[in-house]
Amino acid sequence: MTAFAIIGHLARTDGGFSLNDLPGSGGRMDVLCRCVNASLFLSHDLRRDVDCYLVLCGEPKGPKTVKFSGATVCSLSPDERSAGALIKKVIDIPCGNEFREAAQGVFIRKGGLERLLAERRFAVLDETGTDVREVKDLPDAYLLSDHLNFTEIEEELIRDCPRYSVGPKCLHADHTITVLHNELDRRRC
């Protein structure tokens, strides 16, 4: 099982955003929606062995973590608006400290990065890391930031995590996921 976790530094933590304005009213929710799609979609199918975690850190009720399970998610189409609609649907569901299924294959809970790191070891995808093509065995869980750099507090939390790069250029988070999937697919086939 492969996992991707993306930190949404400004991402709304309530349903008070417009599907017609995911970048503005959603706090760059568009970036997270593209990451969900890059994590889960194949041509005419889903990656059933992938989970995608969105760590929402914005106003007003953060942090919250939304999990998309490739094994069970339904009603997801390969466009930003579809992922945004599912996030909007689940984000206001009352939740506690454990994941609660709020829509089929989409879970929500309170808590953010610190909690996620306590549960699973993640590698950080960062352009300054070791090139994935130079690494014999790659891990199964990866952490990325949205359009913003990791904060000082986040850097402290991930200081002991291995860092990998997918190439010499800084890519958008969703493109990084796609390139990494390609590398993993080549190794597994």
Number of strands: 10
CATH architecture: 3-Layer(aba) Sandwich
Can you tell me the number of structural domains? 1
Physical arrangement of strands within the biggest beta sheet: 6-7-5-4-1-9-8-10
Give the terminus-to-terminus CA distance: 15 Å
Note the total helix count. Answer: 5
Describe the main β-sheet briefly. 8 strands, mixed
Shape: globular
| Assigned CATH class | Alpha Beta
Alpha-carbon Rg, integer: 15 Å
Helix content range of the residues, please? 25-40%
Helix-strand category: alpha/beta
- Name of the CATH superfamily: SPOUT methyltransferase, trefoil knot domain
Q: Which segments are poorly predicted (pLDDT under 50) over 5 or more consecutive residues?
A: none
Q: Whole-number average pLDDT? A: 96
**CATH fold naming:** Alpha/beta knot
Q: Beta-strand percentage? A: 25-35%
N-to-C order of helices and strands: EHEEEEHEEHEEHEH
What do you see in this structure?
With 189 residues, the chain is an alpha/beta fold. It has one domain: SPOUT methyltransferase, trefoil knot domain (Alpha/beta knot, 3-Layer(aba) Sandwich). The chain contains 5 helices and 10 strands, in the order βαββββαββαββαβα. The chain has helices spanning 29-40, 80-91, 113-119, 152-157, 173-188; strands at 2-8, 41-42, 45-46, 50-56, 64-69, 100-103, 106-110, 123-131, 141-145, 163-165. The strands form 2 sheets. An 8-stranded mixed β-sheet has the order 6-7-5-4-1-9-8-10. The protein has a two-stranded antiparallel ribbon with strand order 2-3. The mean pLDDT is 96.
